[in-house]
Design goal:
heterodimer; A: 437 residues; alpha/beta; 2 domains; two-stranded antiparallel sheet; 12 helices; 7% strand; B: 341 residues; Rossmann fold; five-stranded mixed beta sheet; four-stranded mixed beta sheet; 14 strands; oxidoreductase (chain A); THDP-binding (chain A); branched-chain 2-oxo acid dehydrogenase activity (chain A); coiled coil (chain A)
Chain lengths: 437, 341
Amino acid sequence: MPKTPPERREGSQPASNLPPLSLHIPEPRYRPGDTPDFGDIDIPAVEATPRPGEATKPEAMRHLCYGLVRVLDFDGEAKGLWNPNLAPDRLRSMLRTMVLLRAFDDRMFRAQRQGKTSFYMKSTGEEATSVASTMAIDRTDMVFPSYRQQGILIARDYPLIQMMNQIYSNRGDHLLGRQLPIMYSAPEHGFFSVSGNLATQYPQAVGWAMASASKGDTRIATAWCGEGSSAEGDFHSALTFATVYNAPVIFNVVNNQWAISSFSGFAGGERTTFAARAVGYGIAGLRVDGNDPLAVYAATQWAADRARTNNGPTLIEHFTYRAEGHSTSDDPSAYRAAQEARAWPFGDPIARLRQHLERLGEWDAERHEAQAKELDELVKTTQKQAEKLGILGHGMHQPFETMFEDVFEEMPWHLKEQCAQMLAEQEAKFGPDWKPE
Amino acid sequence: MADDTKTMNMIEAINSAMDVMLGRDDKVVVLGEDVGYFGGVFRATAGLQKKHGKTRVFDTPINECGIIGVAVGMGAYGLRPVPEIQFADYIYPGLDQLVSEAARLRYRSANDFICPMTVRTPFGGGIFGGQTHSQSPESIMTHICGVKTVIPSNPYDAKGLLIAAIEDNDPVVFLEPKRIYNGPFSGYYDRPVEPWSKHAASAVPEGYYRIDLGKAATVREGEAVTVLAYGTMVHVAKTIIDEMGADAEILDLRTLLPLDIEAIEASVKKTGRCLIIHEATRTSGFGAELAALVQERCFYHLEAPVERVTGFDTPYPHSLEWAYFPGPVRIATALSKILKD
């Protein structure tokens, strides 16, 4: 029989007059049917947040882990010490990329609903995090993304058709249909293969950055995860290694408030900020308005300069909101208040950048509409081209033996045998003349 | 050859393999708990940091997920990392990085990224290590798609196989039988340990050579029964077989995956009998896979049921470890039985 620790005797009182222990199970503030009100979120004034030098010791800038880096006020004016003062052309390019990303997301979401693929994940409302941060680092820097950073690929001009081919697992998919849609891989664009297991890319990014530093390279690494997966051990392994070796890496935590149906409280968000995870590791931390593209740009630029000058890693919490479901397999109306996205006080990143450009006199509604239409057309045309190469579930698009290739560099005997078995099965089913469609 | 051959124990041979590779290829890095200045708790990396520098051979936090995870990233950068996990019993916190990341990176990225990593780790019992310093997790490794599993049984093989593992472009788990680091083990824990210097395989070339992965070695030729073993158990099996005067053929598998199935098939078809010996727990152990393969390929040549001699399905006990260990009595009993059948 297992032995148990001494029990409290029935009917007896505790040794003191303390109330009995109670277990806290976090609960989000709003559920379906509630009217959300985020009026009590502390939003410091744009000018209120100081900008320390890139070499500042982490202990001298801890307050930034609890504040909020902002550049755009809610009237679209860029202000304060963090203002990156980007030229209008750069701003327009940023806007264009975000609009294209949203058009791409909308189109691919619909494609999934039309049964053309199994799965999709939109980044609606979070476009600034991936797009603006990518524009603030060098194209040769290596990104270790999570699953909602398609904006990085678009910002680096990765061909849309290749993304679509991957989503459709079609003949053009260079990953040979092996990966779930959106698990891209693009080494020539500095984009590491997306895993699907959460936060595993965090220590990998640190390893890449350590390798770069040990070779006297100039390139840095960036890693991405959500606030939910910051609870994974890999996250903490990564921060430990990064601080130990002063690795040139930027850790991005996209705090979009929701991990499928679990709110940020299940990752510890009720107690402190996610940027504050940096404090315990002795690394720099910044908490940034993730719906403010210029703030994201500025924070990333700061962290990249810091990393590139051997001043070590930075953790950036992008405070944002997941405006839509986790994925096409998710229905957020089952667990959160329908109005949350609209009530979110930081607005929409595309609308905010547009407002800023218009305020500068560098953009107008007419151009915006024309661009939206142009990009929608671009996505639509590209989609048609991609679909010519096949869609998921309508025929098999890869030669069967590709299933067994690349498990190892050279195929060992047991895989050759299994491959032969599978080919015989398929020949029995489809006949000897079958070719990939 | 004789001029540059030195008598080495297994630790020295493993050290020499890393030394040679650190010297030949500036992409090779060695990392792990206590491997740097101190040179490893088993001394496998002694002197390497001093010789090759701190950024090539360095200590890590006590964090196996991190050790294997950063090694995956280093591999993606273009390095050839050789992480050490201090005991195989500690590999479990790093298993997700091994199973879901290192092993599948080439496949999932269709060759965009590879993971040329060699995870070295001491395994097996017989050193009073208790249940957390004695385990043999090789069948967990062979069950992962995309990882090679190598287990040497002597200094010469250890060096040649480790060099081949480091040069391999796929992740390799290199399991080092720590009971035989300092000398081959007879299986008689109450007899004096014989040093490697009395064993022919302790003559190790000081320079570069490789033993290709996936090739078994015939340790002893025989006609009556094929004994499949690896690591420590090769030596234990040989002692008992020599004592019994049994006409047994011993195959030292050396690489469990990819397995040298041709050597196994040829030997079992010749002898008609097969005894499998490993120290790991029995159920779902690698012996089960070997028994199935032999049955599938050699059934009509078999004259007796395939036998397994293994550790028991219990955690590795501390004080009773010799009752757990598949030693002389267990092996002799199984051998007598299979030869009688």
